[in-house]
Amino acid sequence: MNKQELLINKTAQDKIDFKLGLQSLLEDADYNFENLFTTLRYYIINAIPNKTDYSSEAYQRALNTIPLKPTYTPIVILKTYPTKIAFQKLANLPADENKKTITSLLWIFKITDTERRNTECKNGCGHFWHELDELE
After folding, report:
1. Over 60: is that where the pLDDT of 94 sits?
2. Which of 46, 61, 69, 88 has its CA 20 to 30 A from that of 53?
3. pTM (2 decimals)?
4. Between vectors from CA 14 to CA 97 and to CA 87, what angle results, nearest 5°?
């Protein structure tokens, strides 16, 4: 697990405050929007239990609680389009939308992965990223 992935997972698991984790990701010397976007998209797709339409309760709750104005372009896209199409549209937004996009995706991963840890993984799962204390 690289530094960015560790930071994402620590943020999702509340081992680092969300705002601090987000800030650390965005201000990292190695920050690259495309790489971070790809990692978060992959993590979200794997954390959502219903892979058919991605309409799980946790995913919907995440969309409705993103800590940004609901009128911001990334949030409108996420709420308007099916997940896979929304992610394609997010990847093509202008650079001035990158911070809002990463904020939205990190939040969605935090909520969906928390749900996964509390349901599918609550009795142990073997996912090494859910054992962060052992990785440090």
Report:
1. yes
2. 69
3. 0.89
4. 30
